[in-house]
Design a protein that fits this description.
Distance between the termini: 41 Å
Number of helices: 4
Structural class: alpha+beta
Shape: globular
Length: about 180
């Protein structure tokens, strides 16, 4: 069992239940999945960029990503329907908790000029999305083998019904939210 999952079961869930005044154990907010998405704009012209993105996401998440394809043609971007434009991984279970642990404790503190993540990036239904501008913040990526830096989006989906409950859940996991200045 991963460290973050056992911490959730032993300390975070009971603490959230009392703090949010939830009657049932099953109504306590929890993380259901983490989706990591990496867009590759040049991938439609060069397949080596898609292959590099797939290799990076495989190393970061420990799971093989799905190549995403364009749904419709856009002439200005020279993209046709069905061309590869990115890669996506959906993590659940133990891999999800291990990825979140590495994201919160290793990758985010390695971001250049890091002052915390925004606490306004919730979608209104308890899901949180953050963007990373560089894949080299993860220790699994060898910096000398990077041809081009690529950003990625990380979406954390929760069972929380409100943004405030999801914010409390992620704060209990140790998500470093930025302090607002008054």
């Amino acid at each position: 069992m991963s460290r973050l999952r056992s911490r959730y079961r032993e300390t975070i869930a009971p603490d959230l239940r009392t703090r949010l005044q939830i009657a049932s154990v099953h109504a306590v907010p929890r993380v259901t999945k983490v989706v990591v998405n990496m867009g590759v704009g040049e991938g439609s012209r060069e397949h080596k960029f898609i292959d590099a993105a797939v290799a990076d996401l495989t190393a970061i998440t420990g799971q093989r990503p799905v190549v995403t394809r364009a749904r419709k043609s856009i002439a200005n971007f020279k993209i046709r329907d069905g061309m590869p434009v990115g890669a996506r991984v959906t993590l659940r279970g133990i891999r999800m908790y291990e990825f979140m642990d590495r994201l919160i404790n290793i990758a985010l503190p390695r971001v250049h000029d890091f002052r915390g993540v925004s606490d306004r990036a919730f979608d209104g239904r308890g899901n949180y999305t953050l963007g990373l501008t560089d894949q080299s913040v993860f220790p699994e990526i060898d910096y000398s083998k990077i041809e081009k830096t690529r950003g990625m989006n990380v979406t954390i989906c929760t069972t929380a019904t409100s943004d405030e409950d999801a914010r409390e859940l992620l704060r209990a996991f140790g998500m470093p939210f930025a302090r607002r200045e008054a």
